Structures are given as C-alpha cells and as structure tokens.
Amino acid sequence: MFRASQLTKRYGDVTAVDAVDLEVRAGEIFGLLGSNGAGKTTMMKVFMTLLRPDRGAAFVDGLDVTHDSLAVRALLGYVPENPALYEKLTGLEFLHLLATLRGIPPDGATPLIDDAAKRFRLDRELELEMDAYSRGMRQKMALAAATFHRPKGLVLDEPTNGLDPRFTKILKAYLKEFAANGGTVLISTHITDVAEAICDRVAVVHDGHVAALGTVEAVQAQAGASNLEDAFVALVGDA
Amino acid sequence: MRFYAVYAADVLEAARALAARAKRRKSGLLWFALLFAGSVWLVLRLAELALAVGLPPNLEITPGTLLFLTFFVMLAKGAVDAYHRAIRPEALVFLLAQPMPRGSVALGKFFTILWFNLAFVAGALGLAVVFVGVGGMHVPIPAAFAASLVLAVIAGLASGFALAVLGSLGTWRRKAVGLGAYAPVIGVVYALLDAANPTMEGAFLALVAVTPFALLGVVASARFLLEAWNNQTSGRRRTKLSRPYLRLPDPKLEALVDAELKTMVRKRQFLLSWATIGILGTAALVMYAILGPASLLPRRYADLFYPLVVVAVAYVAAATQLAVPAMAALGKELDRLWILKSHPVAGTTVYRAKAAAILVLAPVILAVIVLPLPLVAGFPWITIAFLAAVSLAVCFGLLALGLWVGGRHPNFDPNTQGLPDSIEMYNVFLAALVFAFVLVSVPTGVYRLNHVLGLLAAILVADLAALAVVVTTGGAAHRYERLDS
C-alpha cells in the first residue's frame, strides 16, 4: 500500500530522510518509531503529498505521490502531529466541508459523519465552533475527519497525543478493526506501548535512516532487548 | 519593567522575521527604499503645489486637520495591529499565564506596535528634512509640526489599541459601554485639533495634553485584555448546519467559498470591512456636502475633482479590503494548510474560492463608495457608468495584484496572522497605486475625447483586469500545489 524507494528529503543543509526504502503491505498496521527530528513526520508527509521528495519516489497503492497527488489524497485519511482546525467552523460544518471536498454528496455524508461521531464519542462537540475545543477534542475531531469517509489507508502522526487512556484504548481497538477489514495504517508514535499493542511491524527511524525493521519481536531480537522500549534505546542510543 | 521583557522579545522576534524575509528578497528591500523615498517626495510635492496654487475655497486644510487625520489613520492602524499582536494570538497564553500584571503584557505589546510605526514616521520625517534641506523643496516643516506629528501617531496608536481591546469584550453591551467610555478621548482630539482650528503651537500643546490620556487608555484597557483574548479565542455553539451564503455550480468551490465567508463573518472581519467601506463612502459624501456642487469649484478643478475623489476612495477601499486579504489568502492558513493539502481538491479550486470570497466585497465598494456621490451630485448616467466600470477595473486589478504577491511570497508568520510584513505591505500599496493609475488613466483619456468610447474602453479595461484575476489565480494555485507544507 505504501512504498518508498530511495526516498530522500532535505531541508536546506539538513537531510531529514536519506535514501529510505520501505514497504507497508495492505491490511497492515505499520509503526514508525523514532526520536524527535528522526524523519518520521517527513516520511508521512511525503506519502500524504504534503512534501515533495528531493530524490527517489514514494507510492501509495501504486500511485506516484508526486504525479497523482489528488488520487493519492482520495485514498487516504490523515492526522497531523498538531491538528490545527478551522477555528470558526463548528465540527459538523468542518466534516461536511471535508465530505464535499471528497465529492461525497450531503445526503451520503450525513450517515458517514454520524457514524464517525459515534465512534469517536463526538456528540454536542459537533455543534461548537472549534475554537472552543480542548487538545483532546481537536485530536478526536482530526481522527473523525481522517476516517469518516472510510479510506483505504490511514496516515497517523502521533495520534494518541492529548487523548486520555480510555480514548486511547478506543482508538487502538478501532485501528485493529480497520486493519482487519483490509485497511492499512501507517502510524508514528513515541509511545512504544502503543506500537507493541497494535503494530504488525515497526521501523525504527534514526537520523533519516531506517535503523531496524520487522515485527516487534524481530526488532527486539535485533537489538538484543526484552521489550520494544529497550530495543528502541539500544538502536538510537540514549544520548 | 516586566513590560520591557515582553516588548524586547516581541521586537527581537519581529525584527528577525523581517530580516530573514529581507535577506531572502534583497530586491524587495531596494524597491521599498525607492518607493518610500518616492512617496515622501510625492507628498511634499503635492504640499508644495497646494501652497503655490491654492486649494478650493471651501476646502480648509489646516495643520490641525492634518494632525487629526494622522491621529485617525494611526488609530485604525493601532486597532488592526493590536488585534493581530495582542488580542488574537493563541500563543498569548504563555504571557498571560506568567506571574506578572496583565498591564505589563498589554504595555509590552503596545510598545512593539509603537516601535514599528514610529520607525516609519521617523524615516519619513528624516527623508522630508533631506528633501527640503538638500533638495530645495519649498515646504516648511516647523519643529512644532514634526513634534506634533509624532505625538499624533502615539496618541492614535494608543487609542486604536484601547479601542481594539474594548471592542473585543464578551457581550455587545460590554463592547458598547467600553467603546462609549473611550469615545470622549477621540471627541476631545477632534475638538482640539480640527474644530477649534488651533495655531501650530496650539495643536502641539493640545497633543501634549491629550497623549497621556490616550496612553492611560492602554493601561486601563489592559484590565480587559484577558476577557478580550478569551472572547476572541473562544467558540460559539451552533445547533444547525447553516445554508451556504453563496450558491455556486461547483460543490467543492461552493463549500470552500462558504468556509472562507463563514470564517470572515464569525471573526468579524466582514464587519470591519463593511465599517471601513462605510466610513470611506461617508467621507466622500461629507466632502461633497462641505465643498458643494462642482460648479462652485474653481474652473480648473470643476470637471475632474469629484470623479477623482470617487476613484481615489475606491482605490483606498480596494487596496485595503481586496488586495491585503488577497495577499494573506494563503499565509493565513498557517498550521491548518494540511487540511486543504491532504484532501483531493485542486489548487485552482482552492484559490478560486479564496478570490471569490474576497471579491464579494467589490459590489459593496461600488454600492457604498462609487455610486452615492455621483448620484447625489447628479452626474450624467454615462459618467456614473464610466466611474463604475473603472472602479470595477481597480477592484479586479488590485485583487489580482494581491493574489499574485500572496501566491509568490506567502507569509506564514503567526504574529501577523498571515498578513505580509510592513515593508511588503507598503510596497504593494504603492505598486497598487501605480497600477490603479494606469487602469484609470487610459480609459479616462479616451473618455475625455468621446464619452461612449471612453465607457467602452473602461469596460474593456475592467474585462482585462478580471482576466488578470483569472491568470493570477491560476499562477498562485500552481505555486500552492508545489508548496511544501
């Protein structure tokens, strides 16, 4: 579903992603683990067509992200690390706007939005202008916006930021169900517990390179550690 | 002195952002210097001409009038700056949460605004002295007038700051009481500077007396900064999905235009725009009421005076209400650019929506500024149609200019909410002036030879300016598509 080939992205003199090869299979929950500035967000933004690669290529469901950007966006749902929203629109107006942008007619959008609102426990919040949202509410709205149209793939950058433990549990259950129904999830997280709980495979990203890749158990074995947290520290160093 | 820490950090950040942009675009800085010097020269030259030739008999412009106009313009500038720097930014939470009086936050922000605006005034006065002293221009700049100008700028900015805070309070009643409480200061400034027709020294003394009260307004309004900030960064509950403001054939375009319009209405930007256009339209009518019909004017002014007034006021409205928002069309998206860029919607649709949402104000400019004075003055229908067509050309042209600049150099600075920095804004205003002059002068030349042909030329120029909007929208959309976010 997601494939990167010699993917390289630079910001001035800094190489954020350096000739990365990566493949995420359909129906898989794939975790990107890495310290701050490792290159996870840059990789995800390239797949979301928000950044253009300087070298190499990235594909989503066989579509080139550079040349087929609209088609790629139609397939995916995205939650950025800090989801800024249209502060003066209500949640309901926002979701209807996104439905229209995805070509979903109003009568088709309403049941999808209702469904997403129920899934992410958004009720009266939908009537509020999003200025008034707390961090957790913004995150829930961003998750609803990324999933309501039933995409083929999800790109989630630190999706548990700002969520309480109860809702983190709900999200994990949803992602498992999503993948079980054939959806693909590319998720970045600092929280190794989340990765251990839901990811089929993980990649540890360090300084723009993939330092380790495989199932959680395989990465632990590669690092000679008994859990993912220790494996992560062993692979990226504790400095 | 805690306000100084706020001020120092603010100025440092803004100066660095400005320096970074100037470094990226050195030609912009040179262009700015030339235009700035050119505009100071132009003002002095106009003053020189007015002193030599004289003004229409009923048009009495005294130093007090000029100082009051300065005060009034800086009041508007101060209000806009205060809104963007002190009332709207969410990041203000870090300052409001510190163990220091809120007055220090307000004063720190106010001094930042003062610093930037006084830098412009100082530059302009310095250049004026050079032009008069070295260039030999015959315009007297008495020391009392220069000092009064600085005081009028300080008093205007302070009043604008206080009005912006008081006008952002939680309820309409509180807004009305707050604004009403401050209104006497503005009334006193008008009475002392304009109505009393003081001497130069008298105007200076009046400003010396009034400025401390205006500054006290900043301190007093600081008590309400928290309420204003909370009110501006909080949302309302809306139980129903409202209908789109505009019906358009393309559903994506309609949805995006609607989101833009709803945001502008709910942020009260439209209210501000309508008020500005209303004030400008009223000012044109008041001028007509004071000076009387064209037949009462000296012959050299009679033909052109009121049409020029109409077009000049339309330029001011188009520059501030169409070109400036167009410049900020992309930059104002700031951190939420991901929303549009991660959805399957083409850049052309995004930019068309932005242009359409801004263009909604063009008919308001026509209805409130362009048509009333000619109708009241009883202009022939062909002159009215001509003025409407050239004004529409100016609206389209300046919108295109704003879209072009905003698409090429979007400013994602949260401190200005996506608005371009002062240097860029100034450059664009002056470029807009030249552009508007070209758009108006060509059909005017034809109109003076033949009215019907002139009208047709104006319609053609308006068509071409509309085409410029289409072309610049496409160009800006192309840049938007290639923008890393």
Task: Walk me through the structure.
The complex is a heterodimer of chains A (239) and B (485). Chain A is α/β, with parallel strands linked by helices and 239 residues long. In chain A, strands 6-7-8-3-9-10 form a 6-stranded mixed sheet, sandwiched between helices. Chain A is built from 9 helices and 10 strands. The two termini of chain A are 35 Å apart. Chain A has a single domain (2-84, 152-236), classed as P-loop containing nucleotide triphosphate hydrolases (Rossmann fold, 3-Layer(aba) Sandwich). Chain A has helices at residues 40-47, 69-75, 91-101, 106-119, 135-147, 165-180, 192-198, 216-223, 228-236; strands at residues 2-11, 14-24, 29-34, 55-60, 63-64, 76-79, 153-157, 184-189, 201-206, 209-214. Chain B is an all-alpha fold. Chain B is 78% helix and 0% strand. Chain B has helices at 2-24, 26-53, 63-87, 93-96, 102-133, 143-166, 172-195, 200-222, 225-232, 251-266, 269-291, 299-302, 305-327, 337-341, 347-359, 361-370, 372-377, 381-408, 422-449, 451-482. The longest helix of chain B is centred in the N-terminal third of the chain and has 32 residues, at 102-133. Chain B starts with a helix and ends with a helix. The A-B interface holds A 45, 48-52, 69-71, 73-74, 76, 78, 80, 82-90, 92-93, 96-98, 100-103, 105, 124, 127-133, 145 and B 233-239, 241-242, 251-252, 254-256, 258-259, 262-263, 266-267, 334-336, 338-346, 481-482, 484-485.
